[in-house]
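1st attempt posting a full record on here, be nice pls
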Amino acid sequence: AFNLNECVFQGNTISTSGDAIRAYGGGIAFSSQNSFNVIRNSSIIQNASEWDGGGISGRGSIELSNTTISGNSSKIGATALILSNGAFDIDFCTITNNHSENSLDEFAVKVLGAANDGDPTPVSITNTIIAGNTSNHLSGYAKDLELTGNFSGVAVHNNLLSATGNYIFPEVNVITADPNDWGLEPLADNGGFTPTHALLPNSLAINAADSTVSGGTDQRGAPRVQDGRADIGAFERTGSLIDTEPPSSPVLKVDSLMETFVKLSWTASSDNVGVIGYDVYQDSTLVGFTDSLEFLVVGLLPCMEYRYTVIARDEADNQTPSNEVTVFTDTTPPEAPVLEDIITCQSIRLPNVFAFDICDGDSIRGVAEGFIGKEPGNYPIEWTFTDQHGNSSIANQQVIITGPPVPEFFVPVSACVGDSVTFIDLSSNVHDQATYLWDFGDSTISTQK
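the predicted structure (as tokens):
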């Protein structure tokens, strides 16, 4: 006989050996027909059998209470547990998310009573969730419970079941095929020594256990019957341990911004129990609550600065703020000026050009892009005006140089017709003063003293 308490059996696999030896019980296998065995406050999870009983396979009597059997698999037969040749008492257990690879009409739990010539055996299955177990059958689901053989008494009541099977009494059990009604959180550390499936607020298991239950604890050690009546399954939601762990911090960002609205989004927060939603704050004022990961704030004024944070809240009202983001409702670019072309006879240095910004109430100096050569020709210039919030406008302009190329012997880099220039007489290397002339007819360059 064995007596197991607060144990975890996880990730074990039992394989067949040829055709003669069949592998039973991925997590626990026992054969002790003349003794009584006990498993309490434990988790049999993510085990595998290449034959029957992905979680437990047993021959002999057993009491199974406050225990989670989840994520186990079998090639053939019962997905979670198969029991035979004994007295069986299953109470306040959660049996879910187990899978059979067999395409036949398999069951999550099989209990085999005595053969026709044997002594009848008692079976009691109460206050237990058997739901969400699957198989490769066309239906996709494994039936909940199969009882076959001779029994001296059968007590199957106050269970939450998801499908039909032998000995399913609708008047004393909660039967629903809707996963939303099962209301099971993923397997997690919800306190205590072993992982459990917490109950969601909408679960039909809440306050649905046998009304005569008046005490005790759940799998984690949390008191039961704190809300007038115990919950079905290994987890007592209303009797949960005090939750002092806040959610993780969401990361806030701005998705889009206009002068009268801003769209915010953030990453999902995680929590040991569950996040119920997010408060949205604008300049320390609560402007909304949502259970989604985005929020649209409207009614903003142009040319204003706003600061935003979101706060994640869990069921125990533990709170964690996000980072703060600041927005300025300025989406209007500066008013770019209309620029006239610059006509000159020589290469020039561009002047400063400014645009007026409405929100800043200031002039923005432009940045020019373009090349101005020394030769006569048209040179396009593009001015860009960018305000402090990244809004930009563009103005275009041309610089038109009309003068001739500058001869090498002139001191100035350029000159216009009629200018007084200093030149070098190449024959005598003497500086002299003259008037720069340009003959457009024959493209000759001359000077006149």
